[in-house]
Design goal:
4 helices
C-alpha cells in the first residue's frame, strides 16, 4: 500500500527545496556574473591606465619643478650666480661643483646614481627620486657616451647657463648671474633617453637630436609621447610639445629665444 503523505510533510519538502535553490547559483547564473565582471573590467582598465599615466606625468613634472626650485635656493645663497651646468665630465678651470655632480678628479666616470649626492643641489633636495622621471628605467639605456649621466638624472641643464662651455680671456668657464636671463628662458629639459652622446655630462645644446629616426623630438624624451617636461628660470615647470621645442631649437631667423639664451651672444648661441 502506498503511504499517504501528510500536508505537513509536503510543506516541509517544498521549504527544503526552496532553501536548496537559495543556497547557491546555477552554472548559467555564474557564467552571467562572470561575463558582467569581465565587461566591467574591460571598461575600467583604460581609465585606470590613464589615471596611472597621469599620476606618472605629474610626478615627472613635479621633479622638473623641484630642480628649478633648488636652483632658486642656490641663487639665494650664492650672490645670485647660477650653478655650474656640469658642461663636461670634469670641471674646467674656474668652475665650481656642478648642479648634478662634483666635476673634480676623476669627474663623471661611472654610471653611479650616488654621484648626485656630490652636486650642489643635493643638500637642497636630498632625494634621488627627484632627479629622475619614474618611467625612466635602466632598460632604456643605450650608448650614452662616456659618463652615462642618464643613470643619475632624466633632465639636463641648458648649456646656455655657461655659454655652452665658452671661457673668458683668462681661460675660465663663464658663470652668469640669473639677471642675465629672462624668467621665461628654459633651464632644464627632459632629455632624449634613446641614443647619442649627450649623457656624458649634466648639460646639453638645444636641439641636439639624439635619435636620427625621430629628428622632430629635438633631443626630448619620448616616454610621455609627443611632449616632455621642462622647467624655467622663474622655477615653474610645464609640458612642451616636441614640435614647439624643435621650432625653437632650429629657429630660422637665428635670433635669441628661450632655448638659445647665452648672455654673451646677441643670438643666444
Amino acid at each position: 500500500m502506498t503511504p499517504i503523505l501528510s500536508a505537513t510533510s509536503s510543506r516541509h519538502d517544498v521549504r527544503h527545496a526552496r532553501r536548496r535553490r537559495a543556497a547557491g547559483f546555477t552554472l548559467v547564473e555564474l557564467l552571467v556574473v562572470i561575463g558582467i565582471i569581465a565587461v566591467l573590467i574591460s571598461l575600467l582598465l583604460p581609465t585606470l591606465g590613464k589615471a596611472r599615466e597621469q599620476a606618472t606625468r605629474l610626478k615627472c613634472l613635479n621633479s622638473a619643478r623641484q630642480l628649478a626650485v633648488a636652483n632658486q635656493m642656490y641663487l639665494t645663497s650664492n650672490n645670485n650666480y647660477l650653478p655650474y651646468s656640469n658642461w663636461g665630465p670634469t670641471s674646467p678651470a674656474g668652475a665650481r661643483v656642478g648642479w648634478l655632480y662634483d666635476g673634480g678628479p676623476p669627474g663623471l666616470n661611472a654610471a653611479n646614481p650616488a654621484l648626485v649626492e656630490t652636486g650642489v643641489f643635493w643638500p637642497l633636495l636630498k632625494n634621488r627620486e627627484i632627479y629622475r622621471c619614474p618611467t625612466h628605467v635602466k632598460a632604456e639605456t643605450a650608448t650614452f657616451g662616456v659618463g652615462f649621466s642618464d643613470a643619475l638624472t632624466s633632465y639636463l641643464m641648458n648649456g646656455a647657463v655657461n655659454s655652452f662651455g665658452r671661457t673668458n680671456s683668462a681661460g675660465k668657464i663663464l658663470l652668469w648671474k640669473s639677471n642675465h636671463f629672462k624668467i621665461t628662458d628654459i633651464l632644464f629639459w627632459e632629455a632624449d633617453e634613446r641614443n647619442g652622446a649627450a649623457w656624458n655630462d649634466g648639460a646639453s645644446f638645444p636641439g641636439e637630436s639624439f635619435d636620427p629616426t625621430t629628428p622632430s623630438a629635438a633631443g626630448l624624451a619620448t616616454r610621455h609621447g609627443k611632449v616632455a617636461s621642462m622647467s624655467f628660470h622663474d622655477s615653474h615647470a610645464e609640458w612642451m610639445p616636441h614640435s614647439e621645442f624643435y621650432k625653437l631649437a632650429l629657429q630660422a631667423d637665428g635670433k635669441r629665444n628661450s632655448l638659445w639664451c647665452a648672455p654673451d651672444s646677441s643670438n643666444g648661441r
